Amino acid sequence: MNNVFRWVSLVGVLVAFFVGIWTPGVVEAARDNHSHKLNYFQTSKVKIAGRNALRIEIGMTGDEPAYTVKELPYLRQQLVITLPQTKRGKVKNFIAMKNGLANQVSIAEVGRDTQITIDCTQPVIKDNYKISTLPREKRLNKPARIVIELMEPYKEAPPAAAGLNGKTIVVDAGHGGSDSGAVGPNGVMEKNVTLAVAKKVQNILTQSGANVLMTRTTDVDVFAPNATAKQELQARCDVANRDSRAALFLSIHCNAFSSPAAHGMETYYNAGSAKGQRFATLLNEELAKAGGLFNRGVKTANYYVLRHTTMPASLIELGFVTNYNEEQLLRSDAYQNKIAAAIVQGIARYFK
Q: Is residue 147 domain-resident?
């Protein structure tokens, strides 16, 4: 009987032990073993390479954190940083910002991770932000932290290009006036993007000593409001063909498609024009290097402005305004400066 009693007692102890391990309270305690807890939030205004910037420092327990970054450039311009194995801790879940570069910061636990979401006022592209980590600094009484720096877009104009002095270039901003062209999911109109880029191209060409003929410099129809497509297109060709000095014709457009997944840039020329092909190829190479978009290639097309101009001509599609990411890039002043400089570089290479 004593042996039986001892065996029963031992079984009871083992059952109690295993039940204790698998009770909900113990499970939750195990799950709560996060490596970091947020405990510090500070912002400051700084200068980075001459640009105004907002620095956001978020501190936490433990060592320097790991993180992942996701850009959400559509709907709201957001930057999302995920900190794995981290709890929100003492930091507020919502911080309103009034600094011109961010509207708010929200911090939320998602499973075992914490997500920091920043609503930005500028397009969310890599030129406009920088993320890094810093170790604990005992002397300054600061914990290990992640540092997010939001920078204002570049303001300076791109440099002039060599080899363009005295050249006459025709720059055509596609659409305009009563014709908006394609419209993106957030309302960005093709006619506004093409005009902005065309004027930046004009500015750099002029600085480079070139003579620039613009088919339009404001939001207007070139022929007349509500003109037929042929009248409008011919009016653009007439601007170019009237000046015998015109050496190149460039028409600037944005692409569109029913699926928002369509993406990339491309350049066109009229089949049979060797000089047009060379011009379109050089533009394509420079845009691919500067813009970073998927390169859809150099193609031929039966476009009216390519067939009815008397000088080498190319039509460029800067990107898909119907694509969420590319719509935000195309409306970005910094990105427009990049591609305008690339266009001018392509033009300069044509004359070398």
A: yes
Given pLDDT bands bounded at 50, 70 and 90, which one contains residue 5?
A: very low
* CATH label of the domain that carries residue 129: 2.60.40.3500
pTM above 0.70, yes or no: no
Residues 6+ apart with CB under 8 A from 347: 161, 164, 169, 205, 248, 250, 282, 283
Q: What is the CATH number of the domain that holds 222?
A: 3.40.630.40
Q: Measuring CA to CA, how many Å separate 272 from each of 169, 190, 301, 312?
A: 21, 29, 11, 11
Sign of the torsion formed by the C-alpha atoms of 281, 345, 352 and 207: positive
**Residue (of 69, 67, 87, 86) closest to 78 by Cα position:** 69
Considering the domain architecture, whether residues 192 and 147 belong to the same structural domain is answered as no
Residues 117 and 51 in one domain: yes
Specify whether 196 is located in the same domain as 124: no
Per the structure, the complete domain to which residue 48 belongs is given by 36-151
* Least confident residue range of 151-155, 340-344, 346-350: 151-155
Residue 203 within any structural domain of the chain:
yes
d(CA 219, CA 255): 19
Give the integer Cα–Cα distance in Å for 259 and 268: 22
Give the span between the Cα atoms of 291 and 72, in whole angstroms.
19
Q: What is the DSSP letter of 165?
A: T
Residues 205-227 pLDDT 10s: 999 999 999 999 999 999 999 89
Domain count, the chain: 2
Tens-digit pLDDT profile for residues 223-257: 999 899 999 999 999 999 999 999 999 999 999 99
